[in-house]
UniProtKB/TrEMBL annotation, chain A:
Name this protein carries in UniProt: ABC transporter permease subunit
Segments crossing the lipid bilayer: 12-37, 49-69, 75-96, 138-160, 180-204
Pfam families: BPD_transp_1
Alphabetic keyword roster: Amino-acid transport, Cell membrane, Membrane, Transmembrane, Transmembrane helix, Transport
Family per record: Belongs to the binding-protein-dependent transport system permease family. HisMQ subfamily.
A GO term for molecular function: transmembrane transporter activity
Membrane topology qualifier: Multi-pass membrane protein
PANTHER family: L-CYSTINE TRANSPORT SYSTEM PERMEASE PROTEIN TCYL, MEMBRANE COMPONENT OF AMINO ACID ABC TRANSPORTER
Annotated ranges, domain ABC transmembrane type-1: 13-198
Keyword Transmembrane helix part of the UniProt annotation: yes
From TrEMBL, chain B:
Protein family: Belongs to the binding-protein-dependent transport system permease family. HisMQ subfamily.
Protein's name in the database: ABC transporter permease subunit
Key word Oxidoreductase present: no
PANTHER family assigned to the protein according to its UniProt record, in alphabetical order: L-CYSTINE TRANSPORT SYSTEM PERMEASE PROTEIN TCYL, MEMBRANE COMPONENT OF AMINO ACID ABC TRANSPORTER
Subcellular location: Cell inner membrane; Cell membrane
Organism: Jiella pacifica
GO biological process assignments: amino acid transport
GO molecular function, one term: transmembrane transporter activity
PROSITE patterns referenced in this protein's UniProt entry, alphabetically: ABC_TM1
Keywords, comma-separated and alphabetical: Amino-acid transport, Cell membrane, Membrane, Transmembrane, Transmembrane helix, Transport
Cellular component terms per the entry's GO annotation: ATP-binding cassette (ABC) transporter complex
Amino acid sequence: MSTRLFELMLWAAGKTVLLSAISIAIGLAIGLLVCAAKLSPRKLLSIPATIYVSLFRGVPLLVQLLLIYNLLPVLGIMVPSDVAAIAGLSLCTAAYQAENLRGGFNSVPRGLIEAADMVGMSPWQQLRRIRAPIAFRLTLPALVNEMILILKASSLISVVGVIELTRMAQNLSASTFRPLLFYSVAGAIYLVICWLVAGGGSLAERLMRTGSSR
Amino acid sequence: MSIDFSIVWQQLPQILSAFWNTIWIWIVATILAVLLGFVVAALRRYGPLWLNLLLRLYVEVIRGTPFLIQLFLLYFGGPFIGLSLEPIPAGLIGMTIYGSAYFSEIFRAGFAAIPPGHVEAAECVGLSRGQIVRRILVPEMAMLVLPQLVNMAIILMKETAILSIITVPELTLVVGAIGSQQYAFVEAMTMLALFYWALVEISGWLGRLAEKKLSKFRFAV
């Protein structure tokens, strides 16, 4: 493989990382809202949130992507395929992240919240100083896991015409007639990215653990 | 554009055959992946060190790369090393390999969670190695790992949609094609999404039912 082609693969890998990162960030924001709605005592909020989570976790991502990509023009929304892909990935990961966050918030020890009550913290202070930091720390491993899942799942957006790592490998193997080479290189790049994210995740966990023991 | 669902129903025979493909490919691939995953986990635990390292690499590579890339390598790369497969066998093999890596990790955790005292006790009363595996390890582990096995099987159910990309005639491919031919792609995909949703919810419900039945046999730790 010439350097030029390898550079193209690396550029496409960058796009995969970029699109995944944006989707994870938007998904986290939506996930927080969905999680808050699901934990709410009001049925009007919790039931739609439950349906959202069940729906987006129960439908294959490929079907979601195909549907969103074709539904937007029908609704009169014309956006580039990159935006449609980010929308699809974000909506899907939001459902998984909402569940992870819910697990985190539910695992905050009751005693800590009672103690915060006793020292007269307002509900908002409790959320900001006790529940949210602890829930976030508990959710971090699941978040890193979700990042890796989305990095791999982003290969599916090649189907709706976004040029990312998988699509680039597809195009180059079609034009050079060397699928073994290009899919292996693409696989190796995915592997390295996933390892880097996993390594960064365990580093962050270790840093947070030393932070908490002080 | 109007939304018209009746179009999809006219193609029912085709859809039913695609549904059958989705279901049998899912079940066969899941069973094969569970068996292969168990063998990988057992060899990693009880085999020599070099084999453990080799299988660890296998598991890491499969789990660190997208399923789609693995399928492309097998289906489009295979013919270059003398492995020309039709879409359905390629999909079955790809899904078995993909699933086996995840199942082997579940079994690995299961092996580690079995209290060593149980195995030692079995050795003390004179059970052979084969008997220990058959009567202690496998039944105890089945109980421990069942929830994760069900979970992974459901993930594989959803992954069968990806097989449409290598032209396996399963639900997503057939329903998508009908939708395009009839200029009713959004309707077709909406029906498909609802259908997968129902399938996943029903499988999850059946899995929880099985867990409840089997949890009667929980052992003491």
